[in-house]
Amino acid sequence: MPAQQKKIIFCIAGVLSFACALGTAAAIGTQLWVKGTILCKTGALLVNATGQELEKFIGKIHYGLFHGERVRQCGLGGRPFQFSFFPDLLKIIPASIHVSVILFCTVLIIFALVGAGFFMFNAFGSPYETLHGPVGLYLWSFIACSCGCLIMILFSSEVKIHHLSEKIANFKEGSFTFKTHSEQFANSFWIILVCSLVHFLNVLLIRFAGFEFPFSKSKDSGTITGAVDLMY
């Protein structure tokens, strides 16, 4: 492939990596990871609410990695409550999983920036033989893509398997019990998915530029060279 086309491909990959780093950083600080509704089960059972009456006992909840808000509604009107994961909810959430999600988000940002820098370096500079060249580009993209996948797996397990929304809804609730009525992942979670797909796309762009995968080099070249040397 001509050098000019390689530069264009590397510039595109570098811009995409930098955009992923910014998108992940923005996603970390938002409350748009999960949104849903919570049902005040105790209040609904007390009055045997059904149909339109049940709507008076359905509140709202949305949260991110650091903070969020729930609207408690038990037939007396919505009462918003702001909460923070650290240190408010540290005792009731799976803290190790939650901290791991934040850690992998940080690693994703770092390696997305590193990858963007090396893509630009390969586009406008003279790449080194090892980590600054094709092997490095594959490595940074693979690590960033893997981190994005781990973030989605860990956070999904925290929300679905460990019932994170219900634990937040019942935080500091003595007389009322809340159940998850509806729940879905919001924009920030899908940003991580898009970032993972972008880093996988970068791997394909590197291959399209003409660089072989590091593990696809033929082992026969060394043996052939050795045989030729023995002839002389």
TrEMBL record:
Transmembrane regions: 97-123, 135-155, 189-209
One cellular component GO annotation, for this chain's record? membrane
Family membership noted in the UniProt record: Belongs to the clarin family.
Q: What broad class describes the main subcellular location of this protein?
A: membrane
Alphabetically sorted, this entry's keywords are: Membrane, Transmembrane, Transmembrane helix
Is Membrane a UniProt keyword of this protein?
Answer: yes
Gene name, Swiss-Prot/TrEMBL: CLRN1
Protein name listed in UniProt: Clarin-1
User: Which locations, inside or outside the cell, does it occupy?
Assistant: Membrane
Task: State the annotated membrane topology for this chain.
Answer: Multi-pass membrane protein
What GO biological process terms does the UniProt entry carry, in alphabetical order? equilibrioception; sensory perception of sound
Q: List the Pfam families hit by this protein, alphabetically.
A: Clarin-2
What is the organism of origin for this protein?
Answer: Eudyptula minor
